[in-house]
């Protein structure tokens, strides 16, 4: 009641001063501009008062509000309860020093003051769910064409098959070494099959690495992302140059070298995708396929590591080259010995002839 009454008085005082200023400014403005406007309206047959309507000051709305407002004496909002105000003024404020703190004068924005905030349930697995969602969206590959998606997945099946077979055969060989007999195969049969899988996995890896480099040749011929010449052709040259020498390495070293080659090619393809040389979905597509192939290689290495001391190592291409070189050296030495033997025989024959001639004399 107290605040509303004083506010109304203050508003009316402002309105009165505004009305007086507006009236004086209107009268000055009218004397200067009303005559030509009135004459123009008389020619058009309009009322004289219409000429001043458009030039009324902004205080007109305030005047209208003051005229429609209830009077001070007749409004129920302006009736001040003097007795209640006097009683309130005589009340003494109670002191509560224990409630005073550094945060007692802080205005609460989202909650009521003095009301304890309810503890919110914190989901401890929210981060895990977020990571799972990210992985799911990454492996969804919604933007990849269906044909490329299915053919690419079919291309990693040989890697998955050879890796799974390597792990099983390694387990069977260990089982045979401990119990004397394998679970499904004998130790000798499992080792023989393992040696058959080795060149298949390494050879297939070399083919895939070469194929990944050849993709950039096709993109260059299609002029996807423009023509880049030798820079893009270099991808197709480097890939097979790195892949095929791995066939000459032992199995473990060959798998590690191919894993490095797949990783390097992925980063190269990612940079090409950022430059606009490949479709925008190619980087994610390559990541998924490289992840599957890399995991298969790691699984194969782990399986082979469990039986490193239980199997014999078949000669690889490098061993065969070494054996070939040794055979060639032996043949050269043999030829050299035969040549020397012939020379010695020829010298002895000449000496024998000389002796016969001396006897004849």
Provide a compact summary of the structure:
By secondary structure, the chain is mainly α.
Question: What do you see in this structure?
Answer:
Helix 8 runs parallel beside helix 10 (251-274) and helix 9 (230-243) packs antiparallel against helix 10. 71% of the residues lie in helices and 0% in strands. The chain has 361 residues and is mostly helical.
* H/E element sequence: HHHHHHHHHHHH
Structural class: mainly alpha
| Biggest pleated sheet | none
Strand content: under 5%
User: Helicity range of the residues?
Assistant: over 70%
Poorly predicted parts: 18-33, 46-55
- Rg, Å, rounded: 50 Å
Q: For the terminal residues, how far apart are their CA atoms?
A: 166 Å
Shape: elongated
Number of strands: 0
Number of helices: 12
Mean pLDDT: 76
How would you classify the quaternary structure? single chain
Strand-helix topology:
Elements: H1 2-44, H2 50-53, H3 59-68, H4 82-90, H5 126-140, H6 146-155, H7 157-179, H8 187-221, H9 230-243, H10 251-274, H11 282-305, H12 317-360
């Amino acid at each position: 009641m107290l605040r509303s009454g004083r506010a109304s008085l203050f508003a009316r005082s402002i309105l009165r001063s505004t009305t007086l200023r507006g009236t004086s400014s209107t009268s000055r403005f009218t004397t200067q501009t009303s005559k030509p406007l009135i004459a123009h309206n008389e020619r058009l047959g309009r009322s004289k008062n219409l000429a001043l309507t458009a030039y009324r000051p902004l205080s007109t709305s305030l005047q209208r509000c003051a005229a429609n407002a209830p009077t001070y004496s007749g409004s129920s909002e302006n009736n001040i309860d003097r007795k209640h105000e006097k009683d309130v003024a005589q009340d003494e404020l109670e002191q509560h020093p224990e409630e005073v703190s550094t945060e007692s004068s802080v205005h609460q924005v989202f909650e009521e003051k003095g009301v304890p905030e309810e503890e919110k349930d914190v989901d401890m697995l929210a981060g895990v769910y977020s990571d799972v969602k990210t992985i799911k969206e990454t492996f969804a590959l919604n933007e990849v064409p269906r044909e490329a998606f299915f053919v690419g997945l079919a291309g990693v099946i040989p890697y998955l098959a050879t890796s799974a077979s390597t792990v099983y055969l390694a387990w069977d060989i260990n089982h045979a070494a401990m119990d004397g007999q394998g679970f499904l195969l004998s130790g000798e049969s499992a080792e023989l099959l393992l040696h058959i899988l080795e060149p298949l996995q390494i050879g297939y890896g070399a083919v895939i690495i070469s194929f990944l480099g050849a993709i950039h040749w096709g993109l260059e011929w299609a002029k996807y992302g423009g023509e880049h010449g030798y820079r893009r052709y270099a991808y197709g040259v480097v890939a097979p140059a790195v892949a095929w020498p791995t066939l000459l390495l032992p199995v473990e070293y060959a798998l590690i070298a191919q894993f490095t080659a797949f990783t390097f090619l992925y980063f190269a393809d990612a940079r090409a995708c950022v430059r606009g040389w490949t479709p925008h979905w190619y980087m994610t597509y390559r990541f998924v396929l490289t992840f599957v192939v890399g995991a298969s290689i790691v699984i194969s290495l782990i399986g082979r590591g469990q039986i490193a001391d239980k199997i014999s190592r078949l000669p690889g291409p490098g061993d065969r080259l070494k054996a070939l070189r040794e055979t060639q050296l032996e043949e050269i030495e043999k030829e050299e010995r035969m040549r020397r033997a012939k020379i010695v025989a020829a010298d002895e024959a000449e000496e024998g002839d000389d002796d016969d001639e001396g006897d004849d004399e």
